[in-house]
């Protein structure tokens, strides 16, 4: 560890004499001590309000992951961006070094167990982020991915609510935030972790990164500093410098999952879609007034649709000029299944090796769709009518069932067919097929207009399926169509009674004027009878 801040470590390829870390003169010598390999490195996923605002999500409580001790590196080091990857990102952080064992300590007592505070760069490779979603084993565990130092600030000399972390890339300030902007204060993290396991001397806690973290490329130099700007004396970690180099060894796909990136990972690694060079996300389109709420259909409307057969519904749609409302070629995996719900769409495009490499691995569109489906929704998959490949299996079916999805409709095949049926999730498909994703398809997008089984389906469309098949109803027409269908069902039931009684169908089906008068009279009597019963009640 460096005992002092040598300004020569900032010898960039451009003039940097005004660099804000150039403080060779100090009021007193910084406290410095070697950091031996820690027993544990615990990092928090999201902890700065600025970062939460940037990500568009705010956790209700802290969540953590472990980093291997072999990832520790000292100051003025290098880190490789592995061959075949693009999204290595820096994260300037405040690192806490435990001085005395902490087991079930209170928030009030927690800070007394911290010996030192210093700077850290919690480097991460977003190309591997989705492969170990949440645990960050490979994306955050690489050699050199946890630089620390160079100097140690005595924890007893600082207020944990008044620390600051800053990070520069090639001399440009990219991060600047204070612990007053934390979602979960530093003592809370120590107390929380200590109720699950003992924090031991030398353990390191990485306390989160503020907004401004972004992608770095070979040749970039990152400097991170932690200080106490409101203190009466100069207390700083000094500049923690890391230089990015290009690795030459690629990952071996025969051993494990390969790096893969998509636009979601690019946007999160760079900090925004704009910084990643991506087109802005499409603005949400306001649904028509008659469209059911995203949380699901009105219970009364759902009950009507459950009672209405698809044959009757399709007849009413045809009367209104809608002739392409059928999702052709699909049947239910559960005999007698009836599904009713709003469409959540998933689009596959034809397989192409380079696109599958960038969009097929990791947390792809297919997984995002099944993770985000809401109660009462039906996942509708565009698989281009290709029955020779599976479009979901038992794991995704379990996820949809756990999310209380109403079912799945795909114009492709289903793998693990028997297991999916045993789960009890209604699935309408072209049948079983054992292949995995990638044989014919690339998962491409979610919540877009798709074509499934010859029918156009938009997010929020009403999907109804039974033993006759699956149909799509525009939300603006659903009330009118279902009421007309149920009225027709009553009429058809009365006609069936007449046929069963021995009357010929000629003039009865459809009804001529004479039969219509008889039916209307029966309906009028039924109405008066029901009204009388209601009045008496």
TrEMBL record:
Annotated Mg(2+) binding lies at: 416
Q: Which SUPFAM superfamilies match?
A: FAH, RraA-like
**Region feature (Disordered):** 272-295
Cite the CDD domains for this sequence: RraA_family
Mark out the compositionally biased spans (Low complexity).
279-294
Q: Which domain of life is it from?
A: Bacteria
State a single Gene Ontology molecular function. metal ion binding
Residue span(s) of domain Fumarylacetoacetase-like C-terminal: 40-233
Query: Where do the annotations place substrate binding?
Result: 393-396, 415
Q: Which cofactor does it need?
A: Mg(2+)
Q: Which UniProt keywords apply?
A: Isomerase, Magnesium, Metal-binding
The identity of this protein, by name, is Homoprotocatechuate catabolism bifunctional isomerase/decarboxylase
């Amino acid at each position: 560890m460096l005992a002092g801040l040598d300004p020569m470590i900032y010898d960039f390829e451009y003039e940097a004499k005004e660099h804000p870390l150039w403080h060779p003169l100090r009021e007193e010598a910084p406290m410095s001590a070697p950091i031996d390999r820690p027993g544990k490195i615990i990092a928090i996923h999201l902890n700065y309000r600025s970062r939460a605002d940037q990500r568009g999500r705010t956790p209700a409580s802290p969540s953590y992951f472990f980093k291997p001790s072999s990832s520790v590196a000292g100051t003025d080091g290098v880190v490789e961006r592995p061959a075949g990857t693009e999204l290595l990102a820096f994260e300037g952080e405040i690192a806490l070094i435990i001085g005395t064992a902490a087991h079930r300590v209170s928030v009030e007592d927690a800070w007394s167990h911290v010996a030192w505070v210093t700077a850290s760069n919690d480097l991460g490779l977003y190309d591997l982020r989705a492969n170990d979603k949440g645990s960050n084993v490979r994306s955050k565990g690489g050699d050199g991915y946890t630089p620390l130092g160079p100097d140690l600030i005595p924890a007893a000399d600082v207020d944990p609510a008044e620390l600051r972390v800053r990070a520069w890339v090639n001399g440009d300030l990219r991060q600047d935030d204070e612990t007053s902007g934390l979602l979960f204060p530093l003592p809370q993290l120590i107390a929380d972790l200590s109720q699950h396991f003992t924090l031991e001397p030398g353990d390191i806690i990485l306390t989160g990164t503020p907004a401004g973290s972004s992608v770095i490329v070979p040749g970039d130099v990152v400097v991170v500093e932690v200080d106490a700007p409101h203190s009466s004396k100069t207390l700083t970690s000094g500049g923690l410098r890391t230089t990015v180099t290009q690795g030459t060894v690629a990952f071996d796909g025969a051993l494990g999952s390969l790096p893969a990136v998509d636009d979601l990972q690019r946007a999160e690694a760079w900090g925004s879609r704009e910084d990643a060079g991506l087109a802005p996300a499409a603005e949400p389109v306001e649904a028509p007034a008659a469209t059911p709420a995203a949380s699901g259909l009105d219970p009364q409307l759902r009950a009507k649709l459950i009672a209405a057969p698809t044959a009757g519904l399709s007849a009413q749609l045809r009367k209104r000029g809608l002739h392409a409302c059928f999702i052709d070629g699909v049947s239910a995996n559960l005999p007698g299944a009836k599904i009713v719900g709003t469409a959540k769409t998933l689009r596959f495009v034809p397989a192409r090796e380079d696109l599958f490499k960038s969009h097929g691995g990791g947390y792809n569109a297919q997984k995002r769709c099944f993770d985000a489906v809401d109660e009462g929704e039906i996942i509708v998959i565009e698989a281009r009518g290709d029955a020779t490949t599976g479009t979901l299996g038992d794991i995704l079916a379990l996820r949809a069932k756990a999310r209380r999805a109403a079912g799945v409709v795909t114009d492709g095949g289903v793998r693990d067919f028997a297991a999916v049926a045993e789960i009890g999730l209604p699935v309408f498909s072209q049948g079983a097929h054992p292949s995995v994703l990638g044989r014919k398809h690339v998962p491409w997008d979610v919540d877009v207009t798709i074509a499934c089984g010859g029918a156009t389906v938009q997010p929020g469309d009403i999907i109804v399926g039974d033993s006759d098949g699956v149909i799509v109803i525009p939300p603006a027409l659903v009330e009118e169509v279902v009421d007309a269908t149920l009225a027709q069902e009553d009429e058809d039931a009365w006609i069936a009674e007449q046929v069963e009684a021995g009357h010929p169908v000629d003039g009865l089906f459809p009804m001529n004027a004479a039969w219509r008068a008889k039916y209307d009279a029966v309906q009028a009597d039924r109405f008066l009878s029901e009204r009388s019963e209601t009045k008496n009640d």
